Amino acid sequence: MAQWEYEIRKIDPTWETDSPGAVPDTAEIVESFFNGMGEMEWEFVGFLPHISLAKSSVGPLEPSAYYAIFKKLKEE
Predict the structure, then answer these.
(1) Structural domain boundaries in the chain
(2) Could you write out the DSSP letters of every residue in 52-72?
(3) CA dihedral of residues 25, 31, 32, 38 (deg, nearest 10)
């Protein structure tokens, strides 16, 4: 039976760049984020809803932020 590990990541639509005026739109930022996770072999499985929790394994959650859940096969 497959063993999975999970990762919860905040999707941050901000972009820092050294080139003035070279700011991609939010869709490009989010696409780049997901592509980067895919390159590290993480598979997207869902979003955490907007909830307010005091503590979690990723630290305090912000109720207005989006959190993506990823999984990949656990290395043995």
Answers:
(1) 4-73
(2) --S--TTSSPPTTSEEEEEEE
(3) 170
State mean pLDDT over 19-39: 79
The pair of structure tokens assigned to 38 is: 């895919």
Q: In angstroms, rounded to a whole number, what is the distance separating the alpha carbons of residues 61 and 26?
A: 21
Task: Give the span between the Cα atoms of 9 and 73, in whole angstroms.
Answer: 17
Neighbouring CB atoms inside 10 A of 70's CB total: 19
Residue at token pair 């390159």: 39
Taken in order 34, 35, 39, 44, the sign of the CA dihedral is positive
The pTM of the full predicted model, rounded to 2 decimals, is: 0.67
